[in-house]
């Protein structure tokens, strides 16, 4: 009698586990595509930057925050990519997602970068782009379509970024 | 209903545990992270109830590559003991206990697995415990599910009797969930079941008995059950205050097959002052109902199958009030260190017993009329932490 | 009682994760600044916490659910 009860729970656990795997896989497989939503944000230098005005260039948008370790880790590497490929029609927009920009300015003081940094204080752009991980990096081609999306940052990702930038720049 | 045999409980828990494990790894949404690289050197001191215990605790943790983190901990208790337990049936003593732990964490894709080993060694007690824990961040990092299992083997000796040798085995089953509730709050729920088997009492302690009719009595070695199964369920909450401070609360409920029922509640407040200083204050209240076979005074020898006079199994309560201060610094001279902190924490704990009597009080008392025992303890923790 | 509690606990956790997976995350990753603050960590000082847990475990009858692994000693 007791043994039957134990088997019942055991079986329930396995069934739940499998159901989850099945239910979740389509959600995981979804890849971004289509035209990148347009936006206008104020940059660190004071001017407004509009995404659609950058049509014709390959654009990489990196969503970051001062409290996010991997974000800070990848910033110098992003700066290297920006300096190397900018002459070929590539630009990088660092979008800071914090309501209060003070902490972001402090990080930029410690890790200076040359690419434009924009402030998404009201998180409108983060929501439009459905940012679901920190950092998130989006690659947009010269026609304004989203081609690649990277969630999070682990050392080695910058190799993928470089490969994809090269590919899009040649189009 | 007879209490479940530890083997049955262990089997039930293991099966549920494995089921949950399968569940955890089948859902892969976002990554867990390795624990931070850090080192801590702490001096600890406990002083209360005739017992003074102090010593160092040193932790070193380093990650290797992107997936592995290892840590080692070295801890010593130097004990000077003249506690009420000891004074009434033995003489004061000094003792040293050394505890060493090693652990390794492995981050595989989205799951963090930890294997650890702890050895606690003193003249009359050797305990070796192995643990395996697994935790999985899911659902956009809002939920973390964790499971853990530990098994410990204890070798017990008696300093006053060379021929004495006994064993105990313990198994621990843990499950926990942490859930982000809002942008400013997070909840943790932990459930842990522990089963013990073997020699579960102190070889030095006796119970006492007194027959008030004949005016005679005595003492004899305690007799304990050879199994014990306990459950503990704890809820913890942290809340972020808008001016940058944190409130914390915890509640735990406990019961076991020995009849001990207990609960404790703790509240804390952490307040960053100035730029690098952080201040913390907390209060904890614990209360417990005695084990079924506990009594401060039995009426005759062998009155029950099991008899204990361990004050830790009695009816009592304790209150703790503690404060802490921390100073954070960023050393420029030491290249490999990112930041560090100096910390000092002081706690005052007051224990009040309802059914354990103090036999060390001067004066002559009829057994059972001695004043109830109470004592207070001061705890100091002073430590330096560095992150690299 | 123990077996029922374990099962109840396991089923609750499973139901929790089940509902968690079918609802949209209501705190976005870019809204986690406060939660990421070290003062919001459950265990910012593991060595100090482990020591306090040990102090209480030695002198009180209750044990477990403190968020740490197991470990024994002959502390009377």
Provide a descriptive summary of the structure in words.
- The complex is a heterotrimer of chains A (171), B (388) and C (76).
- Chain A has 171 residues and is α/β, with parallel strands linked by helices.
- Chain A has helices at 2-29, 69-85, 102-110, 124-128, 157-169; strands at residues 40-43, 48-50, 58-64, 90-96, 117-119, 136-140, 146-151.
- A 7-stranded mixed β-sheet of chain A has the order 2-1-5-4-3-6-7, covered by helices on one side.
- Chain A starts with a helix and ends with a helix.
- Chain B is 7% helix and 64% strand.
- The model of chain B is unreliable at 21-31 (pLDDT under 50).
- Chain C has 76 residues and is mainly α.
- Chain C has helices spanning 2-22, 46-59.
Offer a quick outline of the entry:
The complex is a heterotrimer of chains A (171), B (388) and C (76). Helices cover 7% and strands 64% of the residues of chain B. Chain B is built from two helices and 18 strands.
Topology:
The complex is a heterotrimer of chains A (171), B (388) and C (76).
Chain A: H1 2-29, E1 40-43, E2 48-50, E3 58-64, H2 69-85, E4 90-96, H3 102-110, E5 117-119, H4 124-128, E6 136-140, E7 146-151, H5 157-169
Parallel strand pairs in A: 3-4, 4-5
Antiparallel strand pairs in A: 1-2, 1-5, 3-6, 6-7
Chain B: H1 6-26, E1 38-48, E2 51-64, E3 68-81, H2 84-89, E4 93-108, E5 111-122, E6 125-138, E7 143-158, E8 161-182, E9 185-198, E10 206-211, E11 216-221, E12 227-241, E13 245-256, E14 261-273, E15 277-289, E16 316-329, E17 339-357, E18 372-387
Antiparallel strand pairs in B: 1-2, 1-18, 2-3, 3-4, 4-5, 5-6, 6-7, 7-8, 8-9, 9-12, 10-11, 12-13, 13-14, 14-15, 15-16, 16-17, 17-18
Chain C: H1 2-22, H2 46-59
């Amino acid at each position: 009698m007791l043994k039957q009860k134990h088997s019942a729970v055991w079986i329930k656990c396995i069934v739940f586990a499998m159901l989850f795997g099945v239910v979740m896989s389509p959600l995981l497989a979804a890849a971004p595509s289509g035209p990148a939503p347009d936006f206008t944000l104020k940059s660190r230098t004071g001017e407004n930057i509009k995404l659609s005005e950058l049509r014709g260039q390959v654009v990489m948008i990196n969503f970051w925050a001062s409290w996010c370790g991997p974000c800070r880790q990848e910033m110098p590497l992003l700066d290297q990519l920006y300096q190397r490929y900018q002459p070929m029609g590539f630009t990088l927009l660092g979008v800071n997602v914090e309501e209060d920009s003070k902490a972001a300015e402090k990080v930029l003081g410690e890790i200076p970068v040359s690419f434009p940094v924009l402030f998404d204080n009201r998180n409108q752009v983060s929501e439009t782009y459905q940012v679901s991980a920190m950092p998130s990096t989006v690659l947009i081609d010269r026609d304004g379509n989203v081609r690649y999306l990277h969630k999070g940052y682990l050392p080695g990702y910058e190799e993928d970024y470089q490969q994809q930038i090269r590919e899009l720049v040649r189009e | 209903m007879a209490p479940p045999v530890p083997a049955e409980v262990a089997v039930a828990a293991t099966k549920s545990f494995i089921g949950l494990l399968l569940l955890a790894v089948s859902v892969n949404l976002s990554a867990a992270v390795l624990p931070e690289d850090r080192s801590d050197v702490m001096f600890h001191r406990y002083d209360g109830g005739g017992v003074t215990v102090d010593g160092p605790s040193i932790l070193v943790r380093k990650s290797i590559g992107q997936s592995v983190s290892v840590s080692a901990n070295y801890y010593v208790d130097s004990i000077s003991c003249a506690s009420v337990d000891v004074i009434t049936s033995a003489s004061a003593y000094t003792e040293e206990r050394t505890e060493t732990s090693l652990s390794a964490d492995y981050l595989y894709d989205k799951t963090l697995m930890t294997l650890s080993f702890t050895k606690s060694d003193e003249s009359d007690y050797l305990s070796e415990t192995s643990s395996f824990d697994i935790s999985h961040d899911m659902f956009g990092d809002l939920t973390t599910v964790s499971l853990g299992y530990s098994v410990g083997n204890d070798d017990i000796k008696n300093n006053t009797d060379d021929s004495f040798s006994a064993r105990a085995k313990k198994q621990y089953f843990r499950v926990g969930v942490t859930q982000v509730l809002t942008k400013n709050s997070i909840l943790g729920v932990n459930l842990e079941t522990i089963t013990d088997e073997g020699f579960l009492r102190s070889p030095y302690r006796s119970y006492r008995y007194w027959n008030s009719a004949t005016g005679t009595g005595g003492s004899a070695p305690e007799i304990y059950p050879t199994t014990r199964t306990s459950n503990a369920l704890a809820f913890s909450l942290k809340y972020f205050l808008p001016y940058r401070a944190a409130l914390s609360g915890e509640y735990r409920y406990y019961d076991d097959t020995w009849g001990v029922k207990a609960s404790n509640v703790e509240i804390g407040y952490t307040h960053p002052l100035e730029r690098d200083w952080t201040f913390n204050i907390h209060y904890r209240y614990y209360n417990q109902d005695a084990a079924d076979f506990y009594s401060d005074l039995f009426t005759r020898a062998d009155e029950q199958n099991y008899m204990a006079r361990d004050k830790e199994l009695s009816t009592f309560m304790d209150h703790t009030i503690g404060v802490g201060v921390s100073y954070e610094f960023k050393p420029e001279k030491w290249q490999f260190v990112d930041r560090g902190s100096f910390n000092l924490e002081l706690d005052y704990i007051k224990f009040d017993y309802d059914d354990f009597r103090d036999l060390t009080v001067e004066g002559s008392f009829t057994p059972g009329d001695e004043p109830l025992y109470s004592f207070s303890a001061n705890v100091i923790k002073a430590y330096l932490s560095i992150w690299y | 009682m123990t077996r029922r509690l374990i099962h109840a606990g396991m089923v609750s956790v499973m139901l929790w994760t089940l509902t968690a997976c079918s609802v949209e995350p209501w705190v976005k990753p870019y809204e986690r600044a406060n939660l990421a603050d070290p003062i919001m960590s459950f265990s910012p000082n593991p060595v100090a916490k482990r020591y306090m847990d040990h102090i209480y475990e030695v002198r009180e009858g209750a044990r477990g659910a403190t968020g740490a692994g197991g470990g024994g000693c002959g502390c009377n």
